[in-house]
Amino acid sequence: MRISFDKRQVLIFIVITVLIFSFLNIFQKEIKSFFYSFSAPIQKVFWQIGERSSNFLSAVLRARDLKSEKDDLEFKNQKLMIQLAELDKLEEENKSLRQALDLGLEKDFKLAFARIISKDISQDFILIGKGKKDGILENMPVITEQKVLIGRISETYEKFSKVMLISNKQSSFDAKILNQEECSGVIKGLGGFNLLLDLISLENEVYPGDVIVTSYLGGIFPDNLLVGEVKKIRKTDIESFKQADIEPIFDISKSKNVFVILEF
Amino acid sequence: MYKKIIIFIILFYLLALIQTSFMVHFSVWGLIPNLIFLSVVIWNIFEKSNNNFGIYQAFAAGFFLDIFSSRIIGFNIIILISLAIVIKLFLKSYVRIPFLEK
Fold first, then answer.
1. Is the model more confident about B100 or about A261?
2. Which of A37, A53, A184, A218 is the most buried (most CB within 10 A)?
């Protein structure tokens, strides 16, 4: 079998090739159908093996990509969680502002909304996210959206302020029983969220369950901010005044937002 | 010789099946390695230059590739036969592989 490409052989080759091709293509459908009929089961097996091998290989080859994809997704997840937390905060802010609007707080006072940043419960102090930059000054009253007195600003920083809660031992201010102008006293902080209504005249009748509100007398707080409820009356024969244990209305552990009264 | 041809017909039939059912799952940058093309090229490179079995082989390979592809029968036959002839002519004219000459 030696290769010899002379003209005659080439011509014969071309003619035979053309004839074969013509024949094959005229009966293309039948020929292909014949081969497919017995090849289909084998092709099916090869296809399944190929598919499985390819899936396995791509999983192996993509192992490194999967790690980076996982990192990317984790990063995105964290980002979304931050956004979600921000939305939660906004929702809460919105809720507080709505409540404040419902109570007409904005009509009575000039307010500044602030978020509680930290709570020093043992010392009866909280830190809020508004400071000098936002017009916050020392001694400004701090209330909740329900018009409940929390305390007053004790220290101001550029963007933060420290709020001394009314239960702080250094805190004292004038208060009265709701709707009883003549029945007044001084609210003193006992620490640990405990309050005492002191210097109540013996002539005044005070009962457990009476609601205590602020009095404008001392000039520290505006009138009628909710303080607490009388829990127990302390009466001694020796003293010329009586005292009452007060249960504060505010629950600092549940509060997240407060309002600072800028003007009243 | 006939035995050899039958073996190669079966081999290329199986290779065509593998090519169209198995290899299609392994594309590298969009390209699928063609086992039939590779076998024809390798056979024709290492076949003695005065032997033209590689050309018949290219015909069989092309035929089965055409059967299992959507193209007209003859497309791959022409390509593979041309490829085999070019390799043979090139090797005959320019390349000498000593151990194949023996």
1. A261
2. A184
For position B99, what pLDDT does the model report?
61
- What are the residue ranges spanned by the domains of chain A? 7-61, 103-264
Residue B23: CB atoms within 10 A of its CB come to: 19
Cβ A227 vs Cβ A214: under 8 Å: yes
CA A255, A259, A264 angle in degrees (round to 5)? 145
- How much is the pTM? 0.49
Quote the CA–CA distance of A38 and A52 in Å, as a whole number. 23
Domain assignment of residue B76, given as a range: 2-101
Q: Which residues of B touch A31 (CB under 8 A)?
A: 67, 73
Q: Which range in A108-122, A162-176, A207-221 is most confidently predicted, on average pLDDT?
A: A162-176
Q: Is the pLDDT of residue A1 over 60?
A: no
Q: Are A162 and A129 in contact (CB under 8 A)?
A: no
Q: Cα torsion at A250, A251, A254, A260 (round to 10°)? A: 30
**Structural domain tally of chain B?**
1
Q: From the centroid of its chain, how far is CA A78?
A: 14
Q: Distance between CA atoms of A192 and A252, rounded to whole angstroms?
A: 11
Report the gap between the CA of A24 and the closest CA in chain B (Å): 6
Predicted-assembly ipTM surpassing the 0.90 threshold: no
pLDDT for A153 beyond 60: yes
Residues 12-51 of B with CB under 8 A from A: 13, 17-18, 20-26, 49-51
CA distance A151 to A22: 101
